[in-house]
Protein 1
Amino acid sequence: ASPSDFLLPEMKERNPWHSPATIIITVIGVIAVVALVTVIVLQNREIPQKYKYGIVMDAGSSHTSLYIYRWPAEKENNTGRVEEMHSCQVAGPGISSYASAPWKAGESLRACMREAEQQVPQRRHQQTPLYLGATAGMRLLSMENSSAAEAVLRAVEESLRGFSFSYQGSRTLRGQEEGAFGWVTINYLDERLGQPRPPGDRPPHQTLLQGLETTGALDLGGASTQISFVSDHFDGSESPDNSMVFRLYGNDYSLYTHSFLCYGKDQALRLALAHQTQDAPVTLLDPCFHPGYEASKDYSAVYDSPCVSSRRPQGAPLNFTHKGAGNFAQCQKVIRSIFNSSSCSHSRCSFNGVFQPPLQGKFGAFSAYYFVMDFLNLTDTSLPLETVKRELARYCSNSWDQVKQQHPAVKVKYLAAYCFSGTYIITLLTDGYNFSSESYSSIKFIKKIRGSDAGWTLGYMLNLTNMIPAEAPDSPPLPQAGYASLVTLMVLVLAVVLLLLALRPRWPCCSQQPQV
Ligand SMILES: Nc1ncnc2c1ncn2[C@@H]1O[C@H](COP(=O)(O)OP(=O)(O)OP(=O)(O)O)[C@@H](O)[C@H]1O
């Protein structure tokens, strides 16, 4: 027999891969691999997201909209991004139009509320806050007839209480609130408030975005218009009424904001008509309407608003014929006359003696700014202001027949007024707010940001639900951290096991050298 015949059984017995220690280590290794794969698969599988919901109704002067917002449950304090999930346009006019039959205001909201009941999962209804905020239409109605305004709000409240959501109240917002919440909305959606980004959307090693310059907000409604921005030259002292101070995610903001009641585009049109009908004409040739446009207007309807009622000319006939002349330069002249730029008791003013610090940073212009400029194909603010004016002049000079023919699907009440509205927007921005040919390009006409409408409603809800903390959260969220630690631990265990296995043949017990 060869020496190897005697050695082989000995060698087999001493094979390190067959010893109990090796088997135990291998089993631990296999368990670690299986656990690691299981954790990764479980963590990354598509789990149905659980959401919380909030509803805000924007009761504007021209109409009411309902917005449903949602955000991942358990994350509202820091990283859960709130998004618009659904919106509903209430049929009919704004609630302030129901002053003579308030119950109809409540009634008008029901269809959208029923839609909201379908959209929000039933089990969440009772925890879903529902708010209604009214804006300039109701501000005007309060000035005109405060008991009618209260009756409308009561009727609306009664109607909303009849639904299964957690009703939180209906109130008329002050102009400053409308401006400030619009500013919060666009800066929140644009992630400019230094808020932590949701996990997955966060660049590595980054939890907070500090010190970003914010975007100013320009909101043009039907009855009022708001301008809000942060200015290094404004600490509130020169005009405390225009100051709103916030602490959001650990950053302090001193916001300048002003709301011009009666300078929304519908009321501004009344101001322009009032200016042109002071002599009580039977026929008005209006440069802000297309040539060939002709409509009969009631004096009482034009002057039926606190913005113009005191200026109704004595001895006016019942109605007048409103004819278009389509002249941009003349129209601008009319519009300039509705801004009082002659008196200013502050260091600087926008118009009507209202303080305004120097414009600063970029601006987002939404609501009617967007509707009108989008229709006119003029949302591109890299176009020189002179080109925009030339385009407007060309558009205004188009005949009414031609305009109707080119846009058969557009509502006539909007179509007839786009020449006025576009001219008003450019004049408000330049003559009113002092945007120059250069700073005009810092404006962006926007409708939505990341799928959510620009407007005051989201900022209002974030504020009332305390969803924007004053201080930034200190630590990244636990589940992600837990997941990362677990994976790291398992990788470490695996590495140790593999190392032990690799070194196994060198252990004294398992060495293949014949022992002496
Ligand atoms: N597609 C459109 N084209 C032109 N104008 C429009 C369009 N849609 C809405 N508008 C008008 O734009 C204006 C602004 O609308 P928005 O809904 O923002 O105002 P509101 O909330 O009713 O007014 P306020 O905020 O002053 O109470 C209104 O005059 C409205 O009639």
Note: The CA atoms of residues 52 and 174 lie 28 Å apart.
Protein 2
Amino acid sequence: MLHIITRVSSRNFFGNLRKMSSFANLKVEIPSPYVFHIELDNPKKSNAISREMWTSFGECFASLHSNPECRTIVLSGSGKNFCAGIDLMSLMSLGTELSEHEDLARRGRVMERNIRLYQDAFTSIENCLKPVIAVVHGACIGAGVDLITATDVRYCTSDSYYQVKEVQIGMAADVGTLQRLPKVIGSQSLVRELCLTGRRMESQEALQCGLVNRIFPTKEEMMKFAFETAKQIAALSPVAVQNTKKSMNYSFNRTNQEGLDHIREINMLSLQSEDFLTAATAAATKGEAAEFSKL
Ligand SMILES: CC/C=C\C=C\CC(=O)SCCNC(=O)CCNC(=O)[C@H](O)C(C)(C)COP(=O)(O)OP(=O)(O)OC[C@H]1O[C@@H](n2cnc3c(N)ncnc32)[C@H](O)[C@@H]1OP(=O)(O)O
């Protein structure tokens, strides 16, 4: 795995990096210019998501959204598994927080605050305009599935498997799977079968149904490919890439006309950007690869 920080370009960069490194249970690295690697880093518990980690997600992706040094992100899990879902012990501490109130309305408000925090954590991945490539190995359970459905591209190893396990622990999933998975996988019947039974889905089925679009025999091969893809994205105009994600997010649930109206508004400015001229000239002259300033 790549652990080296290459090419450091400014003081600001160091500032960002120091700030970025301080997220609980999330390891931040910069394997090549403009490519960030975020690793779930709670391997002793198969990267179960603690309360601190939920907060980290929100802060980390909001910060990457506005960090000009970041153009694309690879999201992986350390250790044996990608993610074991919510930290079941943190659910117990939520119980303790609840027990401080007798009144149902006040207990409800505690729950609302917590669920909202968890939901916003993964929505911050969707809202971050830098494309996020999730690389999944081993188990991807419960909140792990919620997490990857908020990413842009998903690769996996052949040993990976997926479980919308919430129903088996007595709850309806509430941090994104029920909203995003049906949009990721075409078959409503399959999504409902997965969510209503909590059964395991193996990697081959995940590929077949479109949850992931590539399978690799080993994590090393997957990481290498993911970093290559990330580098390709990072070499492109950040204006073009970020507007592409913005437009695709916006258009997902809207009519074609609404999507077209939205991208027209964006491109009436963006096509006047230096990036368009630089990239179009490089493509037309088949000259040297274009370089783009920070965004
Ligand atoms: C408001 C609500 C918002 C979000 C809700 C989300 C719901 C969910 O996420 S539902 C899914 C909950 N997760 C699970 O049910 C998974 C439970 N874990 C497992 O099934 C397995 O541990 C495994 C992930 C398949 C890995 O198995 P294995 O490789 O055999 O390792 P283990 O020995 O089982 O585990 C190692 C170590 O990790 C601890 N651990 C695993 N998962 C969790 C978890 N989710 N929460 C807390 N701790 C977990 C496990 O207890 C072991 O700890 P030791 O101290 O070493 O015993």
Note: The two ends are 28 Å apart (CA to CA).
